[in-house]
Amino acid sequence: LLLLRRDYRFERVWFWGCIQGVRGAYYIAEGLGPDSAAPRSRLYSLNCVEWSLLPPATEEIVAQAELLKGRFQGDPSFEYEYTEITAEDAERLFEDGKEPVIKEEARLVATIEQIDRAVGIVPRGAFVKTPLGSVHENRNFEGLSLTEAKKLSSYFHFTEPVNLKNKTLLEKADLDPSTDFLDSLEHDIPQGSWTVQLEKGGTVVVLRSLLWLGLVFYHVPVTKQYGYVYFGTGEKNLDLPFML
């Protein structure tokens, strides 16, 4: 990862996780530039030695990949054919009369994007927004207190906010624009899609997503230590509403 940081001139690189396929696993790393809110560069490897840069995720690729079901194969060049797709969906997603086929590499890009959007999280105050609009790591962040760390409202989705734009001026009155510029986890749908647990005698707070099984976030209260990692099959738990 240090070599990746040097070669691609990233400011920060972190190990994102692993998506397990039938014949192999994809190891994923993410790199950040000066603006933390800018789209992240994503790389994958099959052996943790040779890394390949993934193309950026477009809305079109994400929409195409959402229709796919089943496990990943572990081969980036594997092609999926849409068997159970309506003519209407095929026309909407595949213009110019293209064959409804998608490569596994494109599905990998879309899945990482979906997971980051849905369950990629940071503690409140870890990042600040400058008056010019760029987002940077907060140097004054010393971690959440233990009582704050147990609340879902103390964690934010590290992606473009959706619910925040729909809030009334009265609801926004108590928010600090420099730190509360992201959506918090307390209104995530379905309710109950996160579990909060204390480990190591209450010294580590662990959040697990039940929607994307395999995503684990940790934070050591009153320290700067936090992060998340995903180890799973890359499949969304669509049965969750029936399990709660």
What this model shows, in words?
It is a single chain. This protein is 20% helix and 27% strand. It has 244 residues and is of the alpha+beta class. The protein has 2 domains: 1-118, no CATH class; 125-242, no CATH class. The strands form 4 sheets. It has an 8-stranded mixed sheet. A two-stranded antiparallel sheet has the order 5-6. It is globular. The protein starts with a helix and ends with a helix.
Number of domains: 2
Q: Unreliable stretches, pLDDT < 50, 5 or more residues?
A: none
**Terminal Cα span:** 39 Å
Can you count the helices?
7
Strand order, largest beta sheet: 4-3-2-1-14-13-12-11
Dominant shape: globular
Oligomer: single chain
Largest sheet: 8 strands, mixed
Order of helices and strands: HEEEEHEHEHEEEHEHEEEEH
Overall pLDDT score: 82
> What is the helix content?
10-25%
Structural class: alpha+beta
Could you tell me the strand content as a percent range? 25-35%
What Rg, in angstroms, do the CA atoms define? 19 Å
> Count of DSSP E strands?
14
